[in-house]
Design goal:
With 361 residues, the chain is of the alpha/beta class. It is 34% helix and 16% strand. It has nine helices and 13 strands. It has helices at 16-24, 44-61, 75-87, 100-109, 226-231, 241-256, 259-280, 305-315, 342-359; strands at residues 5-6, 67-73, 92-97, 114-120, 144-147, 149-150, 155-156, 168-171, 188-192, 202-208, 297-300, 320-321, 332-335. The strands form four sheets. A seven-stranded mixed beta sheet has the order 2-10-9-8-5-3-4. Strand 6 (149-150) and strand 7 form a beta hairpin. Helix 2 (44-61) packs across helix 6. The radius of gyration is 21 Å and the shape is globular. Bound molecules: pyridoxal-5'-phosphate. Residues 10, 75-77, 101, 147, 151, 171, 173-174, 192, 195 line the site of pyridoxal-5'-phosphate.
């Protein structure tokens, strides 16, 4: 068996300990005689898995009592429609566009109401986060929407926008659980778990109670109403039970590692190694505005397509895989989520140094 350093943006690396534990429990989960994949979602075993996962997440993130946690399916992309469907009373919402995912969310929301673009960084190919300290938020906007960490471009909101009192909705898919957050500053946090937490397909939502409505302006499918899963403790229908089980293990792993403060410390350390190298390199460049750099997705390039392709290819010989940048940006991207060990980042920088010695003219 060989494990590689997997820098994929998602689905992505998971803690080896968690995978080992899951493999040990694959055939017989705690004396049940079956895999978690095979058991009823209404069984006592699964009820405990689900309730422990929710309790551990609430603990890890210090989620206030007036927020509900639900697990839903359909990927983060289905929430692009669910957000306006669940939150629109006035059919007005204000969006900040900092990349492809917020733009997709914006386009989806436009099907439902009057959507204003409050700010955008499209003018510089989303390489920065606009100043959001004093935006023209509309008085009757139902919410303000952001994508907090931009997976494709390698930027991150270091400060939340001033929403002028409107609920903030944040897509945290690629920074979820990477550092402590003050949940009380948000109306809704949601995250597809395949970036930093678990298997693809599952989405975690953290919703302030007063925003959970049963008064809809649209014909909203039962499955898209957050209230449906809130009222049924995420068991209205068969949930993605195996993914919830893995996420639960990852929450416990984070607790064991020292919680989100410790995650942040580790993540900062890893990101610093890479960015420090990039800032001093003559061959590799990071084109992202320094103050807005993501701690999770580090984008860089040699500004030469052929060299970039060679780098990606040769990296495989050093067990460095999935380092190619998103097709819309090019270059390279190292996703260094919670489960990426520091050794992986060190290996990457060693390889970059070697590559630079060989190719810097
Ligand atoms: C990956 C990603 C998505 C899309 O997630 P799916 O589960 O594929 O729908 C949305 N937002 C962000 C920030 C992402 O990184």
């Amino acid at each position: 068996m060989k494990r590689v350093f997997n820098f994929s943006a998602g689905p992505a690396v998971l803690p080896e300990e968690v995978l080992k534990e899951a493999s040990e429990e694959m055939l017989d989960y705690q004396g049940s005689g079956m895999s978690v994949m095979e058991m009823s979602h209404r069984s006592k075993y699964f009820e405990n898995i689900l309730n422990d996962a929710i309790a551990d997440l609430r603990d890890v993130m210090n989620i206030p009592d007036n927020y509900k946690v639900i697990f839903v399916q359909g990927g983060a992309s289905l929430q692009f429609a669910a957000v306006p469907m669940n939150l629109m009373k006035n059919k007005k919402a204000d969006y900040i566009l900092t990349g492809q995912f917020s733009t997709k969310a914006y386009k989806e929301a436009c099907m439902f109401g009057d959507i204003k673009v409050l700010a955008s960084s499209k003018d510089k190919n989303f390489t920065y986060i606009p100043d959001c300290s004093d935006l023209d938020v509309r008085d009757d906007a139902d919410y303000v929407y952001i994508c907090e960490n931009n997976t494709i471009y390698g930027t991150k909101f270091k400060e939340l926008p001033n929403t002028k009192g409107k609920p903030l909705v944040s897509d945290q898919s690629s920074c979820f659980l990477s550092e402590p957050v003050d949940v009380s500053k948000y109306g809704v946090i949601y995250a597809g778990v395949q970036k930093n937490v678990g298997p693809a397909g599952l989405v975690i939502l953290i919703i302030r109670e007063d925003l959970i409505s049963d008064n809809f302006q649209f014909i909203t499918p039962t499955m898209l109403k957050w209230k449906t899963q809130v009222d049924n403790n995420s068991l209205y229908n068969t949930p993605n039970s195996y993914a919830i089980y893995i996420c639960g293990k990852v929450f416990k792993w984070i607790k064991k590692m020292g919680g989100l403060e410790q995650m942040k410390k580790r993540n900062l350390e890893k990101a610093k190694i890479l960015y420090d190298y990039l800032d001093n390199s003559k061959l590799f460049k990071c084109n992202v505005c320094k103050k807005d750099r993501s701690m999770m997705n580090v984008c860089f390039t040699t500004n030469n397509e052929e060299l970039d392709a060679l780098f990606v290819n040769e990296a495989k010989n050093y067990d460095i895989v999935n380092i190619k940048g998103h097709r819309s940006v090019g270059g390279m991207r190292a996703s260094i989520y919670n489960a990426m060990p520091i050794e992986g980042v060190k290996r990457l920088v060693e390889f970059m140094e070697k590559f630079e010695r060989e190719h810097n003219l």
